[in-house]
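Final report, Chapter 2: Outcomes

The project's central promise was a pipeline that accepts a single protein chain and returns its three-dimensional structure in a standardized token representation, suitable for archiving and comparison. That pipeline is now operational. To close this chapter, we reproduce one record exactly as it appears in the project archive, with the input sequence first and the structure output second.
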Amino acid sequence: MFRYRVTFRKEGPARWIGHLDLVRAMERACRRAGLPLWYSEGFNPRPRFVFALPLPVGHIGLKELVDVYLRVPAGADSVKARLAPVLPGGIVVVAVVRVPREAPNLMAAVQRASYVAEGGLDPAVTPAAVETAVRAVLEAKEIKSVRQGKAGRKERDIRPGIFDLAAEYDRGELRVAMTVKAGQQGNIRPEEVVEALLRLGGLPGDAMDFTFYRTGLFVVTAGRLVGLG
């Protein structure tokens, strides 16, 4: 079994593809590309794919990751060349590298994610008001956010999971960059951060009107952020 890490963008029409449909699309593309997929054993054998972290529907992913397992080795450039033309529109292969089979599980490795959110505000809002809103988030001792789950509404404090936050504002256009907790140990949604920024800063607007880009996935090693992929 040989392991290849595919870095890809998910944009355009593909941003509306849910995670399960993305898995199916990747499987179909690998088959069309003639890649020698490694299959599990048992009654219902399946090819092995490990995605780093599901991307919410509607978000744009600039550096998404999936590990593809093959039965026999192939050149990384060959895998990229064969896979790129058969993927659905909006899924663009950026790079392919071979990784050691014994490397940590990709999904389990993710600890943080970086996002950019872009949206409009009332042009009457000043840059100083945006700076004040950013400070309000970063200086807050706790930030309550409510999620609706299967067990009902649940309130939690998202402040410990916000590691970096910055904003650029120009004539009604707001761009927010953030690094937040992500992965199997907990996940902060970028919408929650933008919602907190607007609420604590008293800024007009709705987080649901913003466009969200995931720009990177990271592991923390010796206190430093190390990008995956």
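Archive annotation: The longest helix spans residues 19-32.
This record, like all others produced under the grant, will remain available to the consortium after the project formally closes.
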